Sequence to fold (353 residues):
Amino acid sequence: MNRMHTLFAAILALAVASPLAAREPFTVGGLTAQPGERVSGFLEVPGGVDEGARIPVTLIHGTKPGPVLALIAGTHGYEYAPILALQWIRPQLDPNRISGTVILVHIANLPSFLGRTIYYSPVDGKNLNRVYPGKPDGTVSERIAYVITTEVIERADYVVDLHCGDGNEALRPYTYWMVSGNAKVDEGSRQLALAFGLDHIVIDTHRPNDPQASIYTANTAITRGKPAITTETGQLGQTEFKQVVMALRGVWGILGHLEMMEVLDKPLPADRVVWLDRYEVLRSPETGLFTALVNPGHTVAKGTLLGILSDLFGEKIAEIRAPFAGVVNYVVATPPVSQGEPLAMVSRIQPEK
Fold:
């Protein structure tokens, strides 16, 4: 009897000491990953006032405890470089080497991806990155946002919303660091931005603070007390190797920073960051054709002519000029524009202290 008691106690002690025994399964929607398991499948967005949708997701649930990192690509379906980056990184994330859990949202906006549309869903005409935290009874974009909010963002500790220049945008790579006033969250987001490694970081202090009107993907995490960033790593919907690798490098940098995985060739943060402390998105006053006269990354003086807006007959409607001296983050590089849509973004370089 004593021998049996001793054996039982030893088995119990081993079970308690085992990381696998201590780790619980991780569930998102209808997907469940056991410790040491990689699981892929779909989050279902039920039909409602319009058709439903599916969100392809992978869970990589590590054998060791650690944070939950959500990596979200395809918020805009024509932004291909980050979508490809998550496909490339999926088989490289070994759950037996990961501390914590990684949620890969491969394509947040599948209707836009399959429809090859910029900005807007072909189903409801809405921009997914403007409807957060979404509604369970709204249109399809709002329902997608609701599912991502409740099943992904609210399950995560850190969120990275991976973007690139949409099919109409020529863009110089940069990261948004959103400052909310919550010192702990803001510092966490700042460290994510530095770890991602892009050498231009826009300081954004104008995002809403209401969790029920968060509007943007990353801001939805921030208003819920979770560090988050938005990254921009490519342009014009291109799939060039260097643009995909830029997103991959950023993800590896964050995994190393969060100590979720031993990265043997850990990317270093940018040697010198250009901080951009003010920005303005210039929007089209009319529907017509835009011809850009500057390239992304150009530094411009106040009043520099950025481009010409013409009507559908080729007559000039407006000259689009830089509102202040700074750097061009992106310009629209394809002719068609609708009233109210972006034409260019200019940011001011923060003076050195």
